[in-house]
Structure formats: C-alpha cells, structure tokens
Amino acid sequence: MPSLPRWLQPVGTVIATLVAGLLLAGVAAVVYRAVRPPEGGDQARMHWDTKNTTRFDGATAGAVGALVSRGVYPATEPANTPDVVILFAPEDWRSSLRAASLIRPLNAVLLPAGPEAEAEVARLQPRGSELLDGASVVTLEGAPTPEGADLLPLTTADIIRGLLERAGAPPRHVIVVDPDDPATALLAAPWAAYSGDLIVFEAVEAPADLPRYALGDVTAEGATRIGGRDPARTAVAFATYDDPEHPLFGWGMNVDSPTGYRAYTLASPDDPATALLSANLARRGKVGPLLWAGEAQLPQIVNNYLNSQRAAFFVVPNEGPFHHVWVLGDTSAISFAAQSEADYALEIGPYRMKGPGLSGMDMLATVWVVLGLASALWIAVHEAKFLPDQLWIMRLAWPLLALTMGPFGILLYVLAYRRPVVEQGGMRMWDRPPWLQGMAATASSVGFGGVLMVVTGFLITLLGAPLIPLQGPLFWIGGPMVLIMIANYVVAVLISWPLYQAPMLAMFHGRPYGQALWRALPIVLISMTAVSLAMFPGMWWLMMWNLPMMPKEESILWFGVMCFTVFMGFLIAWPFNVLLVRRRQKGGLM
Prior knowledge:
The protein is of the alpha/beta class. 49% of the residues lie in helices and 10% in strands.
C-alpha cells in the first residue's frame, strides 16, 4: 500500500465532519424557525402590508378605528358612506359588543369615542337613519357625547324592540357570551355585524324561539356550545363552525367548505377596544372571523388553521381564489413576524400542494430528509461495529451519501457490503460484480461531491446569492441560481479531488500521492459533471417550474429538492463510473 501524506486523513475527516455538521445545522434551523419567528421583524420599514395582509397601524384604538373606518367607508358617494356613527367608551367593551348587532340594520360604523372619531365623523358626514328618527351620530352609555350627538341607551330589549324589529330584520340566532371573558366574548362581534344576530350575556335575555349558541366555557340551557380550551382555540372553533340544522349560522370556513375569497382579522386579546373594530370589517368587502394573535407570533392553533385554509389554483395563480388577513394595531401589539406567519400561511399554491400545515411536497421532503438522517446514523454505527478494516475514505463517504439518499441510503450500503471479503495488496476489499463496483465507485464520489454541492448552495443562499447583470444571449449565466450551480460544482471538485479521490486512486493503483493527484483530476471532473447533468437541471425544473414559489434555505422543501437531485445525479453518474471501473481508472472494491 502506498504511503499517503499524514495530514490527509485528519484533514479529510475534519472537512467531512464539518460538511455533515453544516448540513445538519441547516436542517435543524428549519425546525427552529418553524417554532420560533425570526428576530428583527420590527425594524423600520416603508410599510407593513404584504401581499396577503393589510395592517391598520395605530398605537390606540382611536387611531386604528379611524383607519378601519376609512377602509370600510371611503365616503366618496352615498353607497360607501354610513348612515350612522356609533361612539363607544373604549373601556366599556360590553356595551359596544352589544352594539355590533346594530351595524347591519343601521348601516353604521362603530368607533371608540375620542378626537380621531370626531375627525372621522366630519369626514364621513353620515346621513342619519330613519330608525333613529334621523340621528346620524349616537353614543353608547358611558361615552362622552359630542355636540349634536344622541345618547343611545343599550339593552337587549332596546335592540330587539326598538331597532331590529323596526328594521324588518330581526335576529335569526342568539349568541350567549361570558361578560367576564372579553377574549372569548369579542369573537361574536364580527359575526353579529355580518349577520345581525343577537349577542346576550344571559340566556334569559333572548327570545325563547331563537336557536342559541354559547361561546367558550359558557353554559346555557338549550344552547349549542362552541369553544375550546382557550380563546385561540375557541376562535378557530367558531371560524370553522357550520350547523347543518341552521345553515345560516356560522362562518363555516374549514378545509372542506367550497367558499372562496375569505378574510380573517387578527387582533390582540389584550386590547378589547381595538378588537371590537373587527365588527366594522365584517360589514363590507371580504368578511370573516376574528382570530387572536400574540405579540411575537401566532398561537400554534391559529397558524395551523390558517395553513389549512390555503387557497389553491388548478392552472395558473391568477385564477384565485385569494384570501386576506386584516391586522389591527401596531407592531407593539402584533409583530411583523406574526403578520408574516399569516401571510405565508395563506399564500396561494397549486391544487396538488394544498394541505393543512405542510403541503404534500413539504411532507415528501420531510420524509426524505428524515430517512436520510436515520440512514446516515445507522450506517455510521454499523461501520464502526462491523467494518473495522474499512478504508477511512469510504467510512466517511457512506454516511455522507446516505444524508442525501433518503430511503435508499441503507439499501445501497447493504448492496455494497453483503459481499465476500478478499485481501488484495494488504487491503481489505469486497468481491463485487462490475455493476456493483460502479455503484461503490459512485458512492465514493457522490458521497463527498453531492453533499459538498448541497452545503455550498446552502451557505451561498443563506449569505445572499450573487447577481451579475449581463447582456446578450448569455445573460442568464449571471443569474443567482446559475452562479450557485457553478459555485457548487467548483467547490465540490476542489475539495473532493485532493482530499478523497486522489488518495483513493493512489491506493487503488499503488502509486505515490503526487502522481495520483493529477491522474485523479479528469476522473473527478467526469464524475462531478455526470452528477451535475441530473442535479442542476433537476434543481431548475423543480424550483423554477414545479413549486408554488422558489423555496429558500429556511424551508424543508429546499433541502428536500437538493437531496433528491443528488439522488438523481447518483443514478446518472452510476453508468459513467461503471465504465471507469471497467477501464481500471477507478476502484469499486473498497
């Protein structure tokens, strides 16, 4: 056996360990980012809106209310101007919650009393309602009454007898809520504004002939309970609720419902006055339920629910449907990271990608990557226990290869080593037929080169892919993906050639390392080119043409695509390596 430089094995082992560590760290980062939103989401921005979300940005309920009012009622013509403005005391969420039932029959907007509301009244110039004897501005009890406004006493009896019955649209259903639990009770506000249904704090207040529903932990005789263990779960339960006996009650926004163009409102449960403004958003345009958001991120149940609502197109994305999220409050109440979670969850995708939480492609990528990790671990343990005389290069190559091979890692390894053992030139080898020698030779090159390509692509994408503006028919060479492919190839060749392939060739031919180094270069180029013939077109085809959006390094889909294309490259490189083995330019018995 020829002697090799002493530094080769320790350096090669360190490099292989580092490459494996970087790949594992990248995959682990996907899991970490999935349970923790990114930091720095609240840095200065030109605007807070995204493709699927709109934020009504205000530090107070009054500021948010004015923006919501402008969004719902531009007041450019009578058709988009309210008849009545209802002012409520910001600290009195109970009275204002009752008033949500009045928004539809009165064609009203509900605003917290204050300077912003007075300015909004001046802008809106409400026409007044015949149901209120021509009054255009009314205040609920406890709210300051501006000059010219009427005081509106508010009890359940007032709402039913004095307003809804006169409007010819009495409530069809009753929602019973807990007067001491605003985080659950306020979920009824947008539904009441949308439907005109009645909200009560005690079941005895409601007409006996109306179907009753209770939100949260409320128990009421004859009422159907809708709720979960906490307000976030109750919000999702109400958003998905559909009563087959009373089809006019419930948002019914669940995975199986056929309705499209949905909207959702995110608010903080710590600010009832701002959350109440969701009632105005349920009056016009895209309407939908109120959901709760935390300051830093969405509750997991809400995030999962929004992912399950992802819209899907059949042919092209512009066919819709498109969902939207309204965000109430500034980033001190709901961070931009939480807003971004909602934006990503509702991103439209092709029908075959639709699924709750993870899409089908995400799940396939996850399974592929997890099986690769499990295979690599099993192979590393098996080598240490049962193959003590295995060449150190192959001891490193097989676990690295398995990281990208998904369910095929262990299969290839078992095929390679369930063979008779022979001694040749002082080395332990395995008696393999030519096709299997080609497979083992492919494992030695793709095991290092393939993983090096994945890790190189990960690091470049993480740090920022370059762009070189070019003109002429070859402009595409300067594109980020093409440059990443070139870098992947170059790095894979420059590292695997001197550290792994040249030593293999030196031992196979019994030559000094220096002579084998230059003989190994064309062989490495052939192997890496063969891998690239499948890997790079596969990357382009999957990422650019067959995924709803090009995945980034923070997505499990990115790692799934990269690992799968390495497997494709392995299959393409296998016949080339069989030829190299037959010509005795590579060894396949180690």
